[in-house]
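Protocol check, entry for the methods section draft. Step 1: assemble the input record (protein sequence plus ligand SMILES). Step 2: submit for complex structure prediction. Step 3: store the structure tokens unaltered in the notebook. Ligand used here: magnesium ion. Step 1 record:
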Amino acid sequence: MSDAFDGLAGVLWDMDGTLLDSEKMWDVAVRELSIHLGGPMTEETRLKTIGASSANALGVIFDALGLDRDPAALADAKEWMFTRVEELFGDGIPWRPGAHDALRTARAHGLRSALVTNTERRLTERALETLGRHHFDHSVCGDEVPAGKPHPDPYLRGAELLGLHPSQCLAIEDSPTGAASAQAAGCVVLIVPCEIPVADGPGRVFRDSLVGITGSDLAEAWAQPSGVRL
Ligand SMILES: [Mg+2]
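Step 3, stored output:
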């Protein structure tokens, strides 16, 4: 690792909306699911599902439609949604701008990398076909931790798998839910908003996109005081 990194040792990458434009596919799937279950989704409901774990998203959809959170019905809905997302992922997932080069840049500078996603392993494996497994030392999925984002568990586990303290890691996120998770774990968060705005706050640094990001940019983001827009 270069001296320029001065303590930054790892990058923890969110997947949906940060590396891949998969939120668009989730958008299709959750809207279709809502219609399948009883009616169209309001924009307010849709915003609540962005960046949520599948369990939380399903709960939001059921509540919005006035459905009982019956475990069997939730399980059926989850299977319906996952099958639809798998179909959509199978067609190939578009990258977010600059994300592929950003992964290569982190590697080129000797930074350890982990994928930290609320998406479950079954779908993450499909997405890794697009991402390329060689970019990551480890991956953490929503169904592999006690509680998904916005809880800190996914980021704590990601840092642990890299053999690092969260404070040595830069998390890269696009959503308020993901940013809250990374922050709760003790990571500095570089936020590249995608679908919805993310509020400023302690430990948060903002960038409009990952296009052209350099190793020095990653190190600077990690070392910046919070609330800075690079
Ligand atoms: Mg995301």
